[in-house]
């Protein structure tokens, strides 16, 4: 399969905004690297789009121009592209993935580095394969911290599971049953491998599905729902997630930048959720909510 590699050269202050933009435009991940142009330190944020898809570059450029007109971007920027095949990039980004402390009791450990290590009970071994979500991104790590703090020994739904890292974290924190869903076939394959590697397959079930299809005909009420998605997907989730949650259930969400957090707060109130915790780190929000009543 061929991909379009989209490079956005930007000032360091806009790094997180651009990384989220690439995700929202459909990128299968984002890589951030420092670069220099005419002795000026800049950042290159790279995303990957299926070649022949929704014109990744065009979508990115359109949004960047909107931000520039609104005064949200200061300084020069430009966008370039290159067509690549799988083997030229899919595994290169893993060179940046090493043992990452998440909480006092949990580390994310690459499969390639686990040999000979003394493991803690909540350590999570991840072979990311061609998926993203190793635990290095702040949205993932904030969700993991909230799972440890606000978790449950009951039922958990992980929506958009990616590598399976949040589902595994929920199981390691005591959840008895976790249903993890993702629409991406490759993500599901990798998540199943990671679940097996972490010896939680008796409690974590991974399905290639959306939420509604996964629970069709099933009498299931989650004590905890976890969704590390983009803002639009979370807003859509509010309209239906109550049907699958216990009346006292909690919801952990992330993938939200500052300019859209008020939309999330308003939707939470509209659909009967109370915000218990709200964390902001590096321009990204993670929230823990519970149902009213």
TrEMBL record:
CDD domains, alphabetized: AdoMet_MTases
Record has Ion transport as a keyword: no
Q: Which UniProt keywords apply?
A: Cytoplasm, Methyltransferase, Ribonucleoprotein, Ribosomal protein, S-adenosyl-L-methionine, Transferase
UniProt GO MF annotations:
protein methyltransferase activity
Q: Which Gene3D superfamilies match?
A: Vaccinia Virus protein VP39
Which Gene Ontology terms of cellular component type are present?
A: ribosome
Show the Pfam families listed in the entry.
Answer: PrmA
Similarity comment text for this entry: Belongs to the methyltransferase superfamily. PrmA family.
Please state what the protein is called.
Ribosomal protein L11 methyltransferase
Gene source species: Megasphaera hutchinsoni
């Amino acid at each position: 399969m061929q991909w379009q590699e989209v490079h956005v050269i930007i000032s360091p202050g806009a790094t997180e905004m651009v990384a989220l933009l690439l995700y929202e435009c459909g990128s299968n991940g984002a890589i951030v690297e420092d670069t220099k142009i005419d002795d000026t330190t800049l950042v290159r944020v790279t995303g990957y789009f299926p070649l022949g898809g929704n014109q990744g570059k065009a979508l990115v450029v359109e949004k960047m121009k909107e931000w520039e007109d609104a005064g949200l971007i200061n300084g020069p920027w430009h966008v370039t592209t290159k067509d690549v095949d799988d083997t030229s990039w899919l595994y290169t980004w893993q060179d940046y993935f090493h043992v990452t402390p998440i909480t006092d009791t949990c580390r994310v450990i690459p499969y390639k580095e686990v040999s000979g290590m003394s493991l803690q009970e909540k350590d999570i071994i991840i072979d990311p394969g061609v998926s993203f979500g190793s635990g290095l991104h702040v949205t993932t790590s904030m969700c993991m911290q909230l799972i440890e703090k606000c978790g449950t020994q009951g039922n958990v739904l992980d929506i958009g599971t990616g590598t399976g890292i949040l589902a595994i974290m929920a199981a390691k924190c005591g959840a008895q049953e976790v249903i993890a869903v993702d629409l991406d076939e490759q993500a599901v394959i990798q998540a199943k491998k990671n679940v097996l590697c972490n010896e939680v397959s008796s409690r974590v079930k991974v399905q290639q599905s959306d939420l509604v299809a996964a629970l069709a005909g099933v009498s299931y009420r989650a004590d905890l729902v976890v969704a590390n998605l983009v803002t639009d997907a979370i807003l859509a989730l509010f309209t239906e997630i109550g049907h699958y949650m216990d009346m006292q259930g909690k919801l952990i969400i992330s993938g939200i930048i500052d300019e859209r957090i008020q939309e999330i707060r308003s939707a939470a109130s509209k659909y009967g959720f109370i915000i218990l915790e709200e964390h902001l780190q590096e321009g990204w929000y993670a929230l823990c909510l519970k149902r009213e009543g």
